[in-house]
Amino acid sequence: MSSLILASSFFQAYRYSDFFGKSIFFALFILSITSWVLMIYKIKLMKKAKKESILFDSLLESKNNLFFFKKEDFENYNPYLEIYSSLKDKTLKILNKNKYFGEIKDDEKIWLSRADIDLVESQTDASLSKNIKFLLKNLFVLSTVVTLAPFLGLLGTVWGILITFSNLDSSNINSAVLSGISMALATTVLGLIVAIPALVAYNYLKSEIKDFEEDMNLFSNKLIATLEMQYRKVEGCEKKREF
Q: Which domain holds residue 26?
C-alpha cells in the first residue's frame, strides 16, 4: 500500500513539473534502469564465473594429465579455464620449440628451463589481468550513478524551490507552492533511491572481484607449480640411475 502511495506521489510530482523538472525525473529514471540492469548482469556474471571456476578446478584435480582439457569443450565464461588455456597454449609452443631445436629423440622427455617457466608464468599473469579487466568492465557506471543521482536530486530540489518562490505572486498560490515543493522533495528522494542500491552493488562487486582475483592468483600459482613438477629439468639429475 505504501509503495502505491509513493508511486502516486512521484507521478503527481512529475505531472505538475515544468519541462526542466520532467527532464530531471527522466534522467533519474534512465540512471535507475541502467544501474539495475548492470547490477543484475554483473552479479549473475560473478556468481556464474565462480561456480564454473570451482567446477573446472575440481575436474582438473581429478586428472593426472595437465593438458587433458580443451577450451572448446566448455561453453560458459570461466576465468580459470582462460588462465589454464593460456598456460597450455604457451607451454605446448615452448615444448615444440625445444623439441625442434634441441634435436631430441622421440623416446626422450622434453624439459622446460627456468626461463621457459618464467615465460609461461608471465603469460598466465597476462591472462589473469585480462579476466580482471573484463570483470571490472563498465563497473564505473555504478560509481557514476552513485555520485550523479544525488546531485540530480539536489538540482531538482533547488529548481523546485525556485519555482515555488517565483510563483508566489500568482493567482493560485497554493497550487504553485504545492507543485514546487512536491517536485523538490520528490527529486531528492528519487535521487537517493537510485544512488543507494548502486552504492551497495558497487562495493559488493568490488569486494567480490578482489576476492576472486586472489583465488585466480592461487589457481595460477598451482598450475605453475604443477607444470614445474612435470616438466622442469633439475640440474644434476640428468643421468639415469643404473641398477
A: 2-86+139-221
Per-residue b or e along 97-125, where b marks 16 or more CB atoms closer than 10 Å to that residue's CB:
ebeeeeeeeeeeeebbeeebbeebbebbe
Largest CA distance in the chain: 113
Q: 56 exposed, middle or buried (CB, 10 Å; 0-12, 13-18, 19+)? A: buried
Domain count, the chain: 1
Three-class secondary structure of residue 126 per DSSP? helix
Angstrom distances, CA of residue 10 to CA of 36, 174, 177, 224: 19, 19, 16, 58
Is residue 5 a contact partner of residue 182, using CB atoms and an 8 Å limit? Answer: no
Cβ partners under 8 Å of residue 40, min gap 6: none
For 238, the enclosing helix (H) or strand (E) is none
Q: Is residue 30 part of a domain?
A: yes
Q: Could you tell me where the DSSP H helices lie in the chain?
A: 2-15, 19-61, 79-101, 114-136, 140-166, 173-231
Mean pLDDT by 10 residues, the chain (243 residues): 61 74 89 95 94 91 80 86 91 80 56 85 93 94 94 88 71 61 82 94 95 94 87 54 36
